[in-house]
Amino acid sequence: MEMSTSIELFRNIRNSNQYRTSIECIERCKKAGFRHLDFSFASSKKKGNEIFLENWEQTINEVKEQTDKLGMIIDQTHAPFTIKEYDLTQYKELMRRALIASSLLGAKQMVIHADVYDKGESDYNETDALNAAYEFYAPYVELAKKHNIKLAVENLFEEKKDGKRSRFTSTVEEQLAVIQKFDDPSVGACWDSGHARVVYGDNIIEPLKKIGKYLIATHIHDNYAGMDLHVPVYFGFINWPDVMNCLNEIKYKGNFTYEYVYVVFPDELADAYIKLFYDTGIKLIHS
Fold first, then answer.
1. What distance in Å separates the CA atoms of residue 231 and residue 221, rounded to the nearest whole number?
2. How far is residue 101's CA from residue 92's CA, in Å, rounded to a whole number?
3. Secondary-structure breakdown of the chain: helix, strand, coil percentages, each rounded to the nearest 5
């Protein structure tokens, strides 16, 4: 298991409307000790998301060249989200670009959100949601295979507070259902620790065991008060020794990837904070 982080850790600049470029983020990650990275295509156009550019392939190749020079490795990417933020034609093109860009960057897998089901005014229907996810992603599974990329279906959480269902893959059973419906070794699971705790509270280990052999990627972060906060490990209430024991038990071989996307430290303190988080992760991996 390798220590890794999303480069979005450094994208935002405190008290500023400016954003760091991907290379600037990667340079800061290297300074903190990281060598393995998650490159996100989920950030917005205004934050410099490369796949929105007309010359996106050239730009991605330049990012890859500079990343190699820095001795950094992009193992994982995150697909654009969500489909509800774009018209369908635009989103399909962004997905196509993201998969090709992932291959150009040398990534092994791209994390996806499978909640593409729009129920309109009708009641949530799990079967319809499953079929909608399968139909939408089937062409991208084939495209991913052509580019030697695996798709990792992420566990999400229910956003509604009225007890009604609306978001597919908010349970481990639904996450597994779409993976098993594809029944393809190029489709696996991404376990998001924070999302799991929003759904299952302190009982996140059994759902993780159910994912088991399908796990190929992680999003690691903590939380409290039942909210998706993306705070650092040990800043919330997840029992991390139990998590590490479970990952070892299911023989997980992928990266331990931080997704601290909401954290924005004062610039002069950021390097010290991130170094602490890196050291914490290394301690967990080797404990």
1. 6
2. 14
3. 45, 15, 40
Per-residue pLDDT for 120 more than 80? no
Task: Report pTM.
Answer: 0.95
Indicate the residue type of 230: H
Question: How far is 195 from 215, CA to CA, in rounded Å?
Answer: 15
228-262: pLDDT as tens digits: 999 999 999 999 999 999 999 999 999 999 999 88
Q: Where are the domains of the chain?
A: 3-285
Task: Kindly report the CATH number that applies to the domain delimited by 3-285.
Answer: 3.20.20.150
Residues in the chain: 287
How would you class 193 by CB atoms within 10 Å of its CB: exposed for 0-12, middle for 13-18, buried for 19 or more? buried
User: Which of 148, 138, 58, 35 minimizes the C-alpha distance to 99?
Assistant: 148
Q: Are 132 and 178 in contact (CB under 8 A)?
A: no
Q: Identify the residue whose tokens are 């990266």.
A: 255
Q: Which amino acid is at 257?
A: T
Quote the tokens at residue 42: 């989920």
SS3 205: helix
Q: Collect contacts of 276-283 with beta carbons under 8 A, ≥24 apart.
A: 277/5, 277/32, 277/232, 277/233, 278/3, 278/5, 278/32, 278/33, 278/34, 279/33, 280/232, 280/233, 280/234, 281/3, 281/220, 281/233, 281/256, 282/3, 282/33
176-185: long-range contacts (C-beta < 8 A, 24 or more apart)? 176/210, 176/211, 176/214, 177/126, 177/130, 178/114, 178/130, 178/133, 178/134, 178/137, 178/153, 179/153, 179/214, 181/130, 181/134, 182/134, 182/137, 182/138, 182/141, 184/141, 184/145, 185/150
